[in-house]
Amino acid sequence: MPEPRRRLDQPRSTRRLRLRVSVDPELVGQVSERLARFLGTGRFLFWQTLLVITWIALNLFAVTLRWDPYPFILLNLAFSTQAAYAAPLILLAQNRQDNRDRVSLEEDRARAAQTKEDTEFLARELAALRLAVGEVATRDYLRGELEKLRKDLKRRPTPESIREDARWADSP
């Protein structure tokens, strides 16, 4: 049976084997950060230095154990492999830290903007209260007005004094 004609405007179907591997990016990021932190410690440097000294000593002096003679090509390969994996892990850890720093900075900016808005609102409210207090009678003002009224009441004649004055005026 002849093969059907393919249309030129449609892509060919691929017959590749596709493996679907799901990787949790958060887990990879956490592992890379732990590894990057460990690579930067004194403990790692101590153990790596001890391993290199042992490697070189065994390959130089132990005649029966020479698996990597003098140019130490296998040791260089191990260092190259370590560097090939360490650099991307460190970069991944730095990128994750940069993302956390960016989120933190955005939150700080938002918090600072909200604080500024709150401060401006409180300043406006305080100014409005000052204006309102300026229109309200203060304690000193009320005390002064009451004192004036008291003096006026003392000077004002009482009903008895008016009657007495009237009696003196009526008498010949």
UniProtKB/TrEMBL annotation:
It comes from the Bacteria. Pfam families: DUF1003. Residues 153-172 are annotated as: Disordered. The keyword Transmembrane applies. Signal peptide: none annotated. The chain crosses the membrane at residues 44-67, 73-93. Keywords: Membrane, Transmembrane, Transmembrane helix. This is DUF1003 domain-containing protein. It comes from Actinophytocola gossypii.
